[in-house]
Specification:
Blueprint (H helix, E strand, L loop, with lengths): L12 E4 L5 E5 L5 E5 L3 H6 L7 E6 L3 H10 L2 E2 L8 E5 L3 H20 L13 H24 L5 E5 L6 H8 L4 E5 L7 H4 L4 H12 L3 E4 L2 H15 L2 E3 L5 E4 L2 E7 L6 H7 L3 H14 L3 E8 L6 H14 L7 E8 L6 H21 L7 E4 L4 H10 L2 E4 L9 H8 L5 E5 L5 H4 L4 E3 L4 H13 L2 H15 L4 H13 L1
Parallel strand pairs: 1-4, 1-7, 4-6, 7-8, 8-9, 9-12, 13-14, 13-16, 14-15, 16-17, 17-18
Antiparallel strand pairs: 2-3, 5-6, 10-11, 11-12
Bound molecules: 6-O-phosphono-alpha-D-glucopyranose.
């Protein structure tokens, strides 16, 4: 009775992810403010409604811990944006090692091919200690799911933080239908094998414990299968959809390319708070063209090379000086990690250098904002002439899909060919090699020079492709496939 079945989902669903739909900050006066979590994972799973199921996530910091201490771990849907959430108070040391250590300093780097940044993994005793905390953190989720799941429930486990959970549930609760979803790319075997063999095996076997392991694109699903073949000697087949067979069990692989939520965006992007921010941005840039980017300040998002490409544009194509502004929003992320703090500082430094080199009294070439403000992001989407989305590698990248939906001017999209979104938007975006600064500068020039009709036509097609699988359908499609 605690989890009445939802109308659309025919039975109980549990979602498990590190970051939940809401995160609390603790004010100096002891007050708690709830904020929606960022990233594609949260956007995709926002389709989960109370009555449909429960979302199990970790308490992420002192704010969340204080909220659990005050309200208990089962939060009131009124405080979570309408979702039934159980927030696990994982011991701080375990969380720190699992999240900042194993998940974000090793697995994230491997899947995003961030080996050219300071990625010097040392798999020594300190790492072994972190790894056992990662295992403990995964076990805490498996315990909570085992406790909460009614017989035969569907469980949707999310992302690289929780790769061991499906395997643990397979041992403890063979009655459950378990899905795992990766919101990241998956590394090719050559890089995945950087992990110590025993750990590489445990990550893969953990995910193979699911009935179905799903990815954002075919490319990532195939890379996962290739790692299973290479590391485990598993058999992959494409006879009846992509499958991986190992130790007598077969796991189905699936692909669900999360799309933008057109209905939500078109309503949200035209509210007065967004209008206000649009007017403020307009006042700042005048009638100049804008190149817009919106990202977490994330190494894989390749923000610095994006700035260098803009600098190259101003150098090689002086006709744009004074006629274009780069509106760059880079919101703080994972600031507990030194390389992220350094990267954040580098983004500001390079932006300042460009402004010092090219700026004039009436023109600031780069307008950089670092304070997270969703309404202002939407305002930038609306005003953009060009959107720059140039990640080194990205599971999908929802910004590339959101901009065309709310763009008011017809927006040319310069898109990294290494973003999952390129598989769906490649025909109408201008694709770039994210490492190629000159090539990206040239694409920016082409994008700025595109005539209005062509931009308009492309934007319409981009918007249609970007909204083909909205979050609600993405979510239900996975459930149906899991149960089918
Ligand atoms: C990516 C990951 C998500 C993560 C999000 C934000 O989208 O796939 O799992 O939640 O980034 O990162 P954070 O570390 O702040 O949760």
């Amino acid at each position: 009775a605690e989890h009445p079945p939802g109308p659309d989902t025919e039975g109980q669903v549990l979602v498990a992810s590190n970051r939940g739909p809401v995160s609390f900050t603790l004010g100096e006066d002891g007050s708690l403010t709830a904020r929606r979590g960022g990233g594609g994972l949260v956007t995709g799973l926002s389709a989960l409604r109370p009555g449909t199921g429960t979302w199990i996530c970790a308490a992420l910091g002192e704010g969340d811990r204080a909220a659990v201490a005050r309200f208990g771990s089962r939060l009131d849907p009124a405080d979570t944006g309408g979702q039934a959430v159980r927030m696990l108070d994982i011991p701080a040391g375990t969380f720190e090692a699992a999240y900042n250590g194993v998940a974000n300093s090793v697995l994230w780097f491997i899947h995003h091919l961030l080996y050219q940044t300071p990625f010097e993994p040392v798999f020594d005793a300190a790492f072994e200690a972190q790894w056992s905390e990662y295992a403990a953190y995964n076990a805490a989720f498996a315990d909570a799911l085992t406790e909460d799941a009614a017989p035969g429930s569907a469980v949707l486990v999310q992302d690289y933080h929780l790769s061991l959970v499906p395997g643990l549930l397979r041992e403890r609760r063979p009655d459950l239908r378990v899905g795992h979803f990766s919101h990241t790319p998956w590394a090719p075997p050559e890089l995945f094998r950087v992990l110590p063999d025993a750990i590489a095996r445990r990550v893969l076997l953990g995910i193979l414990g699911a009935d179905r392991a799903a990815f954002l694109t075919r490319r990532w699903a195939r890379a996962f299968a290739a790692c299973c073949a290479d590391v485990l000697g598993a058999e992959m087949s494409e006879a009846d959809g992509l499958t991986v067979t190992h130790g007598g069990r077969t796991t189905r692989l699936g692909v669900h390319g999360l799309g933008a939520d057109a209905e939500f965006l078109r309503e949200r992007a035209f509210r007065p708070d967004v209008d206000e921010r649009l007017a403020a941005l307009r006042a700042q840039v005048g009638d100049r063209r804008t190149i817009v980017r919106v990202d977490r300040t994330e190494l894989s998002k390749n923000i610095v090379r994006g700035l260098l490409a803009y600098r190259r544009l101003l150098t090689d194509r002086p006709q744009w000086r004074g006629r274009v502004t780069h509106v760059a929003f880079a919101y703080p992320s994972r600031q507990d990690l030194a390389v992220y703090r350094e990267y954040t500082a580098e983004v500001s430094r390079v932006a300042e250098e460009i402004n010092a080199a090219f700026g004039t009294e009436g023109w600031t070439p780069v307008v950089l904002h670092v304070k997270d403000d969703f309404a202002r992001s939407l305002a930038a989407y609306r005003m953009a002439d060009v959107a720059l989305v140039n990640p080194i590698r990205d599971g999908m990248n929802l910004v590339a899909k959101e901009v065309p939906v709310v763009s008011e001017r017809g927006c040319a999209l310069v898109l990294s060919r290494e973003a999952g979104a390129a598989a769906e938007l490649g025909e109408d975006a201008l694709l770039v090699n994210p490492y190629d600064i000159a090539g990206t500068a040239e694409a920016l020039h082409r994008a700025l020079s595109m005539d209005a009709d062509e931009r308009d036509r492309r934007t319409k097609r981009l918007s249609a492709a970007a909204t083909a699988l909205p979050p609600q359908t993405w979510f239900l499609e996975q459930l149906a496939a899991l149960r089918g």
